[in-house]
Amino acid sequence: MLNDALLQAAGSPAASLAVATQPAATSGAGSGQSFLGLVNEALQNVSAVQSAATTAEAGYAASVPGATLGKALVASDRAEVAWNATVAVRNEVVSAYQSIMNMQF
To answer: Which domain holds residue 53?
Structure first.
């Protein structure tokens, strides 16, 4: 539910994050993919988006043929959306953990 809300709020720039979160929505308990594996894959995708943004910005700054300001800005925005979504998911996990720890049995 949180992933869907983040993707709807972010729109198409979060396509790389959607790829990272898609297995979580389709995999069942018997799929064999661990939560840690999903988190690791998502973080690697965010890192790849950030690297692409850095490369696009450096290409524009160096006047590489085909590198435009628009491409650099779009790549930078995608990296920002991916990072903000990652932080939002982290905050939700921390909040859920704190709620569980505060439960009285």
So the answer is: 36-105
Q: Is residue 81 part of a domain?
A: yes
State the greatest distance between any 2 C-alpha atoms of the chain, in Å, as a whole number: 64
Give this prediction's pTM.
Answer: 0.65
Cβ atoms of 83 and 51 within 8 Å: the answer is: no
When divided into structural domains, the chain yields a total of 1
Residue 2, domain member (yes or no)? no
The 10s digit of each residue's pLDDT in 36-76 is 999 999 999 999 999 999 999 999 999 999 999 999 999 99
Rounded to 5°, angle at Cα 37 from 24 and 23: 20
Cα angle 31-9-50, degrees, rounded to a multiple of 5: 70
